[in-house]
Specification:
The chain has 176 residues and is α/β, with parallel strands linked by helices. The protein is built from four helices and seven strands.
Length: 176
């Protein structure tokens, strides 16, 4: 299982993270699932590769009105009542996602993943990232600091809803 991406698109994600710093950037990755390259795993599940062909930057719509969704009070590790902000959270407007999904389908593409940045934090999913993740997507996290990109990682959920690292392969060929 791998995320296939061009150097140009990878750079665009890194640049978006640097431009949004010290806030989190976010966006959608459009592309195709390559089942022909799928290989059976030991447990019999097929693991597909996904190729990114286009990025759709999204405005970070996170605000305290969605905090109960992203960080339920009983699970909020930041401390009860502590308000989070766009330094540590992102939220993609669901209406925007539906619009992009429809447009992508018209072009024979799929939303294959979500990207976002972690300002001054590792490119490792947070508990909030895991709780809100969908198993059908790849999740790229770019770690950024004031000096620029620190790390770039992709993650996918396993059958136990836990993130597993996903290989990132730089490719030139674009699926269509």
């Amino acid at each position: 299982m791998a995320l296939l991406i061009s150097e140009q698109l990878k750079d665009q994600i890194s640049q978006a993270g640097a431009a949004a710093y010290p806030y989190e950037c976010c966006g959608l990755m459009l592309g195709c699932i390559l089942p022909a390259l799928a290989q059976a795993q030991d447990d019999g599940q097929m693991q597909d590769d996904r190729q990114v062909v286009e990025l759709v930057p999204a405005e970070n719509h996170w605000d305290t009105s969605v905090q109960e969704i992203t960080d339920p009070a009983e699970e909020n590790s930041t401390g009860a009542g502590k308000a989070l902000d766009q330094h540590r959270r992102y939220w993609i407007d669901p209406e925007m996602m539906l619009k992009v999904q429809r447009q992508a389908r018209d072009r024979k593409l799929d939303i294959i993943g979500v990207y976002h940045s972690h300002p001054d934090h590792p490119a490792i999913p947070s508990e909030c990232d895991r709780r809100l993740a969908w198993p059908v997507y790849s999740y790229v996290i770019v770690s950024v600091s004031a000096a620029g990109t620190v790390d770039f990682q992709s993650w996918r959920l396993d059958e136990h809803h836990q993130f597993q690292a996903e290989a990132v392969k730089i490719v030139d060929k674009i699926c269509t």
